[in-house]
Amino acid sequence: MKAYVITVIWAAVAGTLVELIGADEEGGGAKLLRLITGLMVLSVVIAPLGSLLQIGPDALLDRLWGAYEDARTASWESWEQYARQTVDFIRTAGESEASAAVAQLVAQRFEVPTEDCRTAVELTEHDGEFSPSSVRVILSGRAVLADPYAIEAYLAELLACPVAVALE
What we know:
2 domains, GMP Synthetase, Chain A, domain 3, 4 helices, single chain, 67% helix
């Protein structure tokens, strides 16, 4: 393609130079040179069409259909990749927000400092809806005095997923 564009540009430049050198006045010679230059550039531009016509209309349609199918497949694959990336982004943001909310809930419910309670919530997606699949709570500092079994039971009942509480 690059060679074709360069050929068209050189044909236009050569034609323009011939016009500049060959005709000084607006007589019949100048018009004839412009016509010949235009025909030369036109022949260079349409030269690839000859090879397309030689392969036959059925082969040309097959090539066009193949190009269409390739573009459609690439478009669908790009859409699927975009959808996966979007779901992953939503899951990550949701897990971060859910973890902060669970830490706040544990801190309030069991009267422990928020900074001593770290949580990690894992979400799963099913039919476009996210739900918690597991929760990990790590208690440190003054929060280690809270009952880990009570926290585990409370969150497991509330979130309906496996909960693990650890002391640090």
